[in-house]
Amino acid sequence: MLRGLLNIFNLQSRSLILRSQNKRYRPVFFRKEDLENSLFRASRLQKKLNPAFREGDIQVAVLEDIIQGMKDNNTSMWDDVVFIPPGFDVSTDPLKK
Length: 97
Known about the structure:
- By secondary structure, the chain is of the alpha+beta class.
- The chain is built from 2 helices and 5 strands.
């Protein structure tokens, strides 16, 4: 067990995928409102609700388990995870100011 990271929960949704340079990443959030805001903005930008989205389609994982999974497996189920800091807007285009 990793010390000092007691029960930090992370949230993700199968309905939200980030794409960059032909790769897909699963954003993992530290706050539920950040995930919900990102889901809302993504559906608004697409001008429709993601057809894969279902109410309550939010998964919760423990940070320690994610990190341990990353450390234990070379081909981990967590290798496409991107941690999103609290308050960060994933829908912002970094080229636009």
